[in-house]
Specification:
Number of domains: 1
Radius of gyration: 15 Å
Strand order of the largest sheet: 2-3-4-5-1-8
Distance between the termini: 23 Å
Structural class: alpha/beta
Helix content: 40-55%
Number of strands: 8
Order of helices and strands: HHHEEEHEHHEEEHE
Low-confidence stretches: none
Number of helices: 7
Amino acid sequence: MSRIVERAIRRAGITATSEPMDLFAADLLALGALADRLRRARHGDRTRIGAGEADAVDVVVRSGGLPELASLRGRPVGTVVVRPDREAPATGEEILRTAAVCRVALDVVHVAVAWEDIGIELAQVALSFGVDELRGPVGDGALRRGIPRAELEDLIRKAGREAA
């Protein structure tokens, strides 16, 4: 990580032990850099494609509101899936911020986004905010719905990651 990014994280005053509310108020790029550092330490550059465990926990993000994370604090969670609320969809910034906070503040193995809910472009950006899994239908060319696996793997490579 560059010295500039290290300085930005220090200046923002955030660490892996910061409270979620403090993280939500932190500089977005510094928060994303910290979350990405933690993701890289745990998973390297591997990105999972649509694993879909039954024990995954959805973190729903409403526009203008903070997601409820208190029930997830202090307990190990396999996967959290950050999703926008259907009635009051979150902005891209709110999705990225929530994904980063989940990576930094929770005892979570995987942080996922559902590309079908947020768009493939934002999902690709989320890979730099602590996300290590992209979920959504993956087609083989014969399916009408879904993105071809080869195209999804290419998007992951262009983000500097490797598909797992």
